[in-house]
Amino acid sequence: MFTSLSLRVRIFLFFCLIGLGGAALVLLAIYVGYQRSLDGDVMSAFVLTGALSGFGLIALTVGVWMLFDENVAKPIERLAATMRTRAHAGVEQQVDTHAARYLGDLAPAAEAVSTVLSQTALDTAEAVAAETSRLASEKERLTALLTEIPVAMILVSPNHQIVLYDGQAAEALSQIHTPRLNASVFDYFKEKSLKAAYKKLITTGMDVSFIAEGTENKLTFDARLKPLGHAPGYMILIDDEHAQILPDAARPLVYDFDLMEREVQAEAAIEDTPLNKLTFAVFDTETTGLLPHKDEIVQIGAVRVLNGKMVPGEEINQLVNPGMKIPPASTKVHKVTDQMVAEAPDIHIASQRFHTFAKEAVIVAHNAPFDMAFLRRHGKTNGLDWNHPIIDTVLLSAVLFGASETHTLDALCERLNVTIPAELRHTALGDAVATAEVLCLMLPMLQSRGFHTFGQVVEQTRKHGRLLEDLN
Fold first, then answer.
1. What does pTM read for this prediction?
2. CATH number of the structural domain spanning residue 154
C-alpha cells in the first residue's frame, strides 16, 4: 500500500505528520498545564505547558526527520550516486529498487534512463572498437620496427617535459630514477649540458651530439639531440654501451602526446589547476603495525595516473627493511616476512625513491593520514619535506556517495566494479593499483558534479574530514 504512493504524496504526508502531531502535542501540553493550574500554581502550569510543547515538537521533528532521511533522502542520494557512476564512470550498476521502494516512480524512471544510456554507450563503444584495434595494430608494428634500432629514444616537449620514451630509454632512465611521463628531463640529465646542446639545436636546426650527465650515480651517456622539423619539442637519442641498451629486447612505447601542448603549471596555481591537468602518484604501504609513531613500513607500492589513466610500467614495488621484527599477526595480513626484507633498503632510501617518484604530483592514498604519518616521521630525520598536495579516496568516496555509506577500499571497489585479485589484496602495489583504478573512475564523476579544479575538490573533501579522524 505505502509503496504505491507517489513521492509528492509521501512528502505531503511527512508535513501532515509534523502539523497534526505538533497540534496534538500542544493540546496535550495545554491539558497537562491546565490540570496543574487547578492546584493554584498558575505560573508553574504555564512553564510546564511551554516545556512540554517545546520538547515535544523537537522530538517530533527529529523523529519525522529520521523517517524522511531513511526513506527518502538517503535513497535519493544512493540513486543519484548510482546514476552518476553509470553515466560518468561507465560502471554497470543496477538501481537498488528495494532501497528506493518509497520513491514512487523515481527509481523505475532512473533505471530506464540508465538502461538507455548504457545501450547508447555500448553502441558507441562498438563503433570505436574497430578504430582502436587498428591503432593498436599500428602501434605494435611501430614497436617492432623500433626494436631493431639499438638507440634509446626520448621525446621531450618545448617545456622540457618527457612526452614519450621507449623500452631502451626506460632502461637508461631507470639507472637514475623511475621513468616518468610529464617529468622534467632535468630530473634525469644535468640541466647545464643539456640546455647548452638545446640552445645549439635551436640555433642550427641540426642534430647536436653531447655528453648527457645523469643527475645521480655519476652516469654519463653519449647522446644526440634531434629536432622534430616543424613540430614542437625535440628528441634525445642515446647510443651508449653504458646505458645497458639491449637491442633484442622488446621496445614498448610509453607516451602521451597531449603533454606536448601542455603548459607547465606554476606551483602556486595548484588550487586552480583542472583535475585533468594533474599528475597523481597513488601509493599504499604495508607496515609492522597500526601505530605510526612506533611501527615501521615494510613495503611501498605506487603507480602514476596521468590524463585520467594509469601509466603502464611507471610503478614502485619496494620491500623495506623496518629495522625490527615483523609481528606474525602483521605478516599474516600482508605476507611480508623478516626473510623477505633482510636485504631490502631501509626507509630512508625507500622513501627517497618514492619522494622523487611523486615529484610535482598530487599524492593519493586511501586513508592518507595513516600512510603519510610514517613518511613524515622519518622525513624529520632524512630531510624530506612531504609538502605535496594530497587527495584521500576515502573523502572522495564520501563526496560522491554520501558520508553515511561505507568507505573502505573493499566497499569502494565493489561499488565501482573494481576487482582486487585475492593474492594482491593487502600488498602495497596491489592496493595502490586498486586505489588508482577507483580514482580514475571517480575523476569524471567529480567533474560531473561541477568540481573541476583541485581546489574545488579539496574544499568538498574538507567537509568530511571527521571520517578520517574516526578511522585513525
1. 0.77
2. 3.30.450.20
